[in-house]
Design brief:
Blueprint: H1 2-9, H2 11-28, H3 33-37, H4 44-52, H5 55-61, E1 65-69, H6 72-75, H7 83-92, E2 94-95, H8 101-105, E3 112-116, E4 127-132, E5 136-140, E6 147-156, E7 161-166, H9 173-176, H10 231-236, H11 242-250, H12 253-258, E8 263-267, H13 281-290, E9 292-293, H14 299-303, E10 310-314, H15 316-321, E11 329-334, E12 338-342, E13 349-358, E14 363-368, H16 375-378, H17 409-412, H18 423-448
Parallel strand pairs: 1-7, 8-14
Antiparallel strand pairs: 1-2, 3-4, 4-5, 5-6, 6-7, 8-9, 10-11, 11-12, 12-13, 13-14
Length: about 450
């Protein structure tokens, strides 16, 4: 009885310890693509290549991805290919958007939708073209045999990572014509792609490659190689961006940038920030979040985008706020100059120059001519049409090409909703609920004692 009394007395402490136990395991749980595919023996070869090429690490570290898995029979087409070719082919089968079978089928049937893959390449090999018709077909933008969707394998709305089976391996013609002799299976350390790579660090985040095409940048941007990234320190080196840097700090958008990898920050000079000065802090936060692209670009890699096509790019605002419609996206068009507009509508801005290129974390800072201010975002009322603020720095008169906006396909579809909240937001919510529940349980036990 004495021992029981002692254990009863320590019950609140036990509950508190249990709360930390639950929080530890909830925080340590993460997406693992190899664990997902291990439940499907038909994809063991594909899963093995994901591990040996270390592409699995990139998938596990990122959100908003779709993996196009191929069964063991179809994977036999990679037999005899070099390690380098296998590495590239596997990366082509992972693209930076979240699509399930239903979302694929909801794409418009009148146009081709282009998506960006993990392949680091300066040419069209980096992109996939998706066509929705009687069936959904996918080809490499660089040219390949057509493959078709088969079925959903594992859609995960919490981690925004989807695994979808396709009928065959997507093999760009430029890769399939030059198979090199190699061992029957790739080694654990794949050879780097011959195309320019933004980093030599292991298991990097997905990023567009910076090709050796001419860049309008007037001088080489500084590049950091060690230490934690700090966007405010980067911008402090240039007094022209003081106001932008100050607002990043005040809105705490700077913290979100510093905690992530693989992104591009569009910055504007102090004069172009005038249209944001009188806005509430919450509006400033949303506008600045819209200027953070969830992909890595430099001026050169913007020029490597397909010409005369408007490419829709996901932003931090879409990830953190999940706004309606197209508010969380920007459209980038490669022409005589690189033009940028908010997908929801805004004055056109143009890319000016590279400011900073931090290759370790794949974070670049690129100056644009003026702020992207969607009227729907900055309007104080439900009638936003007349409230757009004029920007003091006008973009050059180049107009956006009239080609169809391939990247807007999902946003226009009534059945393809915007991505769900980022998994970190859900994880923090779940942790908070756990804390409240266990704390209440502990308090109850104290009262009983």
């Amino acid at each position: 009885m004495y021992l029981l009394g002692r254990f009863k007395f320590s019950t609140p402490i036990t509950y508190l310890l249990l709360s930390f136990f639950f929080l530890f395991f909830s925080a340590s749980s993460a997406y693992n693509i190899t664990d997902v595919l291990s439940k499907y023996p038909d994809f063991s070869t594909f899963n093995d290549y994901l591990t040996k090429t270390r592409v699995c690490n990139q998938i596990n570290e990122h959100r908003i991805l779709t993996v196009l898995a191929v069964n063991n029979v179809a994977m036999s087409s990679l037999d005899g290919k070099s390690v380098d070719v296998i590495n590239k082919v596997i990366r082509i089968h992972v693209f930076l958007d979240y699509l399930t079978l239903n979302r694929f089928k909801s794409l418009p049937t009148s146009q081709t939708t282009q998506v960006t893959t993990l392949l680091e390449s300066p040419d069209q090999q980096r992109y996939l073209n998706i066509t929705n018709g009687d069936s959904v077909s996918i080809v490499s933008a660089a040219g390949s045999a057509k493959v078709e969707l088969v079925r959903d394998i594992s859609p995960d709305e919490i981690y925004m990572t989807s695994v979808v089976q396709v009928s065959n391996v997507i093999m760009p013609s430029s890769l399939s014509i030059s198979p090199l002799p190699s061992p029957s299976s790739p080694s654990p350390s794949p050879s780097p792609s011959p195309s320019p790579s933004p980093s030599s660090s292991p298991s990097p985040s997905p990023s567009p490659s910076s090709a050796p095409s001419p860049s309008p940048s007037r001088s080489p941007p500084p590049s950091s190689s060690s230490g934690p990234y700090d966007i405010t320190n980067v911008l402090n080196d240039n007094s022209n961006f003081n106001l932008f840097s100050t607002y990043l700090t005040q809105t705490q958008v700077a913290n979100q940038i510093n905690e992530r990898k693989t992104m591009t920050i569009f910055v504007v000079n102090n004069g172009a920030m005038a249209s944001l000065v009188d806005k509430p802090m919450e509006i400033k936060r949303k506008v600045l979040s819209l200027h953070v692209l969830m992909d890595y670009y430099t001026v050169q890699s913007f020029h490597n985008l397909p010409s005369a096509q408007s490419i829709r790019i996901n932003t931090l605002y879409q990830v953190t706020d999940n706004p309606s419609g197209q508010l969380g996206f920007v459209n980038v068009t490669n022409g005589n100059s690189i033009s940028v507009v908010a997908a929801a509508g805004s004055d056109q801005a143009t890319v000016v120059r590279d400011v900073s290129d931090y290759k370790t974390n794949y974070i670049s800072v690129v100056q644009i001519s003026n702020l992207l201010l969607p009227s729907e975002l900055t309007a104080p009322s439900s009638n936003p049409g007349k409230s757009r603020s004029a920007t003091p720095v006008k973009a050059p008169s180049s107009s956006i090409a009239a080609a169809p906006k391939l990247g807007d396909a999902l946003a226009r579809s009534p059945t393809a909703a915007a991505p769900a909240p980022h998994s970190s937001a859900r994880a923090s919510t779940n942790s908070l609920i756990t804390i409240i529940f266990v704390s209440a349980l502990s308090l109850t036990s104290v009262m009983l004692i």
